[in-house]
Every structure is written in C-alpha cells, then in structure tokens.
Amino acid sequence: MADGSQIRIGVLSCTNIVRKVSRAINLAPNATISAIASSITNSIEETKSFVLSNNFPPTVKIHGSYESLLEDPDVDAIYFPIPASLHVEWAVRAAHKGKHILLDKPVALNVYEFDQIVEACEANGIQFMDGTQWIHNPRTAKIKEFLTDPVSFGLLKTVQSCFSFAANEDFLRNDIRVKPGLDGLGALGDAGWYTIQAALLANSSKLPNTVSALPGHVLNDAGIVLSCGALLDWEEGVTATIYCSFLANVTMEITAIGTKGTLRIHDFVIPFQETEASFTTSTRACLSEHKVRNEIPQEVCMVVEFARLVGEIKYRGAKPDGFWLSFSRKTQVIVDAVKESIDNNLEPVFLSGR
Amino acid sequence: MADGSQIRIGVLSCTNIVRKVSRAINLAPNATISAIASSITNSIEETKSFVLSNNFPPTVKIHGSYESLLEDPDVDAIYFPIPASLHVEWAVRAAHKGKHILLDKPVALNVYEFDQIVEACEANGIQFMDGTQWIHNPRTAKIKEFLTDPVSFGLLKTVQSCFSFAANEDFLRNDIRVKPGLDGLGALGDAGWYTIQAALLANSSKLPNTVSALPGHVLNDAGIVLSCGALLDWEEGVTATIYCSFLANVTMEITAIGTKGTLRIHDFVIPFQETEASFTTSTRACLSEHKVRNEIPQEVCMVVEFARLVGEIKYRGAKPDGFWLSFSRKTQVIVDAVKESIDNNLEPVFLSGR
C-alpha cells in the first residue's frame, strides 16, 4: 500500500503499552504513526527521546498537549493509552473532531460514561475499536468456526474463562490499575475484560440475562478489585464462569463445552508463540490439536483491521462497523454488573434493558 | 501373594459397573472375588451366567440374597454396586457383620444417612472406601506433590473442576442416576462427586467455609439435578468452582492456580490411556508436561489399596485407615450443601459444624 493511503494514527501520551502498540502500528502496512502528544506527566523532551528509542517515523509530529494533537489535520485516528478515568473526556472530544478511536480497555469507568463515547461516535461517523488484541488473532476466527459448528460443537452449555497473573509489590502499590482515581476497575477492568469477551465470543456476543459475582473476591484497601469471579447466565442451563486476578500465577484459559464438543485454550490472551497459536478441540472423546499461523503478531492484526475499517470510511465513504462499539459496550455492561453485584452482597444483577 | 492371604470380596448384585470392578478385583494380586449375591432383579440363573461371562473365579459362591452373602464367613469385604438409596441399610448391616466396605459414590442420599454408616464402621473396626478410582491413579499422587510444593505451586488461589458427559435419551429417562427413589442426587452425586473431590484434593482435604450453587442449574421433571455448578469458598480469596452435567460433551478438567504455579488435567476421571496418564504444570510461564506410568489400571490400584488396608487389619491387627471415611463424608457434606443451596434460591450454605 502506498504511503499516501496509510491511516495516520496519533498517539495520546507515551506510556509503557505504547512501545508494543507503536511497534504494531509500524508493522501494519496500512497504518503509520503521524503524531504523538506529550502531557503533564511527559515533557516534550521526554516524548522526543521516547519517539527516538521506539523507532517512530522521522516525520512524526510532537504535540505539546492533547488538545493540539486533536486539532492536527494529519491525524485520522487516535490511540489512547491513558487511564480509564480520562477516556470519556478525550474520546468524546476526539470524536467531535472527527478522529477515529482505538481505546484501551477498560473503555470507561462505567457504561454511563461509555454511552457518551457511543453517542459521540455515532453522531460523528467515527470508527471505534477497543484495544483487545487476542480477538484479532487469526486463531480466534478458527475458534469461532468451531464454536458455531452444529456437528462438532453443538450448542454451548458452559464456558469457563480465566486470566490471572501474579503482580509484584510495586504493581500492587503503584500501578494505575489499582488506583481508584485512574483505572478504578482493578483486575475486573483489566484481566476480567478479556475473560468477559471470551464468554461473549462463545455466546455469539449475546448479553447474559443475569450476572452474579462469586464469593471469594479480594479488594485492596481502596476497595479496588484484586481478584474476583463471576457467573454469567443465559437461558436455562447455559452459563459462563469468569475468574480474574492480580494475585495468582499467570494463567489464560478458555474451556468451552457444548452438547457435542469441547474447546480448550491455554494462552488465549497472549499466545505462547508470536507467530503461531494453538487450541484443542474434542468432539465426543476424540481430540484434535489445531495450530494457526499468523504472519504478523496479533497486535498488528488489530491495527490492520482498525486501519482497514477507517480506510473504508475515509476512501470509500463506508459507514463505521458498529460491531466493535457494541461489543465493547456489552463488555462494559458486564464489568459494571460484576462490580454492582460485589457491592451488593453478591446479589444477581439482571441485564434486561441495559 | 499366596491365595490364602488374598482379601475375599463379595459382590452385592450384578450391574453393569460390576464388569469393570470385578475385572479389577481379578487383576489385583491381593484380592479375589469369593461370592456374589443375586437379588430381586437378578435371578440366580442370571447371576450364574453373569459370573461365567465375566471370568469370576470358578470357586465363587452364588448367594440367593444379600442377607445370605452377609453371613458368608468366606467374605472379608463387600463391594456394593447398588443404588444409593439402599446404601445405608446394607452398609450398616455389613459393618455389623464385620465386613469391610467398598461403596460406590454417592455414598448415601445425604450425610445424615452416611453418618449411620460412619458410626457402624467405627463401632466395628471396619475399613471403608468409596469407589472413586482416579484418586488411586499414581498420577494423583504426583499431582498432590505439585499442589503442595511451595516453590513450584505456592499457595492455592482457585481450582476449577468440571466433569460432564452427554447422556443419551435412554439414560436420561431410565438410569438410576436420574430417579428420585434410587440415586436421587443426579449429576451432582455422580459427576459432581468427582469434581468435589478434585476441589478437596487441591485444598488438602479441608472443608470449605461456604458452598453456593450457581445460577443455571437444570433439573428434570422429578427435580433431579441434570446439570449444575457451585462455588466453594475457603479463607479470603481461595475458591473452587465445580461444574457437573449429564447434558454436555464429555469433559474432565482440573485447572488449579496457585500463587506461583498452575496445574492442568484434561482427563482426570478416566485417563485417555489406561496405563499412562499425563498432566501439565507451569511455574510462572514455564510449562512442563508430565507423564506417569501405571502398571495396572486405576481401578485395580483402588482395589489393591483397599485390600492392602483390609489385610493390615485382618493379618496384622491394624486399625482402619480413617482417611477414606472422612474424605467421603466431606464430599457428601458438600454434595448436600450444593443441593440445599439449589433448593434455597442459591443462598450460600455455611459448613461450620457439619
């Protein structure tokens, strides 16, 4: 693809995750980094040095503020590596400036905030996508094929998904994910986000009827979730359990059981290998191991798909693909419901109308 | 071992499971089948033909009733392949006759019944064991080693265990496991029994503080559990979820996550291979696959261990090993609690004092 047709992405601040995502943008043939904004916490000098050490294109513009980046006519879309508490303000402002949005999870502190982003995106024809990478791994498409195969898998009965990692002392004290004013949703908005999307994926993205937090959650002194589980309940006998934790060894499982088949994945969030990912299926007791090659890492797949959708709008007058906005919203609704159930003595939360 | 020192086992009736267990007794060097009882549903003629077609020793005595077998001085121990609703009566009678007891799960319809068996066993110096086979697979000992290793596994945070199989129409209509008068506890007393023991095993056989049934259980018209899940809760942040079902594809998983390591098994109830069983561990993100050879199938390991304990009592004046009575009782307490929670609008059941 000629450079002229690449989608130009602006990056809002330079945090650690930007190293991975900027590499992904560099590797995506249909996208490029055109600008980065420094912020109160990153001076222009720091941003310059970050840009140099992370192989940003030499043409990249460095803005002194988020506002300035939002005004840049050479920015088609913005990637937001900022705390969730700032999402609603900056994503809404970006949408009103006609910038497409790649937003890290959790997409907001709650769905009421997120609905302001939804409204701004819909009013301004903005393509939205949350920054969950594994969904874009080619393996995920193969998994969906199996989960919707009436012969090999049948009808879903239960899906159990789990993402944990043992955070160190420094993380548990200082990371934005354990601070009420910043990401606020703790392990639930971080590790839990992935497990909820795994449950939705297995259920054709259908919202469950009820969500109940499970006994045994752990909160820090500020009331932030460090570890919790939840049960999602669809029609009779179809359930999902999720488990997310900052306090347990790194584990990334999906086990989905249908009437005829079973799916198992042990590395669903970050595949053990960068260019090949595997999963196991069984139909009755007959096991198969599947390997799916991906020529490019999954975070690049994400950027490629995001830039493709933005390109469809920019060059071919297409409408935004609303799936991603809706998928993120459902995830946020479930995150909120788990939190509400925890705050309400583990009572089930009914999602009808949400 | 000379024949004279073999433990002589009597079998109470001939049902399908007897084919597997009688083969196991035949293969166990320290046990032999000395007698079988026919019953109202099996005539003496039928029992004779069963004995012939299942390679029972030619010396086996055929009794016309359970009572007659209980009086047989050439029977040291009894295996009870009879519905759970009959366990309390016949196990108590057997204990009073000095017969050691190998009892299929669920060991009783509830713990109040089971406590009568406990009392009779303790009053008469009876060795008790429930017929759960996987616990005796040499793999299980290796799993326990990993789960109690402070360096590789650390402290348990959560264990998720699941046993399901898709029963056919005939099973769902006629099997004793779905009949209120017979086994009565449905998938919970059958598949669930295994998952509960897996959770106990991972928690050093400690009873949880509370047990809560999860939303989404399925009952048949007679109120028998066909599918359900439950959450077991120990001290802060240590939990287990179990899932058992007659309605989902055959799946037999244990995933245990500690502070430092993770254990995964995909065939814990019946290993994919009869003479080798595997499991996977990871410490941090470093994976290892373990294979454990067993020279004899796991059901034979069970009989060998049972006969060894009975032999210790019979030949060396040892006392019964109380672990198995206590382990079965804890399992039954949890089965009862899940049932009680289902009957009580999924309220958590506190196990203190049970």
Please give the structural blueprint.
The structure is a homodimer of 354-residue chains.
Chain A: E1 7-12, H1 16-27, E2 31-37, H2 44-53, E3 61-63, H3 66-71, E4 77-80, H4 87-96, E5 100-103, H5 111-124, E6 128-130, H6 138-147, E7 156-166, H7 169-174, H8 186-189, H9 191-202, E8 210-213, E9 218-219, E10 225-233, E11 239-245, E12 247-258, E13 261-265, E14 276-283, E15 286-293, H10 298-316, H11 323-343, E16 349-350
Parallel strand pairs in A: 1-2, 1-4, 2-3, 4-5, 5-6, 7-11
Antiparallel strand pairs in A: 7-12, 8-10, 8-16, 9-10, 10-11, 12-13, 13-14, 14-15
Q: Could you characterize the architecture of this molecule?
A:
The structure is a homodimer of 354-residue chains. The first copy, chain A, has 354 residues and is α/β, with parallel strands linked by helices. Chain A has two domains: 130 residues, NAD(P)-binding Rossmann-like Domain (Rossmann fold, 3-Layer(aba) Sandwich); 184 residues, Dihydrodipicolinate Reductase, domain 2. In chain A, 35% of the residues lie in helices and 27% in strands. Chain A contains eleven helices and 16 strands. Chains A, B: This is Gfo/Idh/MocA-like oxidoreductase N-terminal domain-containing protein. Chains A, B: Belongs to the Gfo/Idh/MocA family. Chains A, B: InterPro entries: Gfo/Idh/MocA-like_OxRdtase_N (IPR000683), GFO_IDH_MocA-like_dom (IPR055170), NAD(P)-bd_dom_sf (IPR036291).
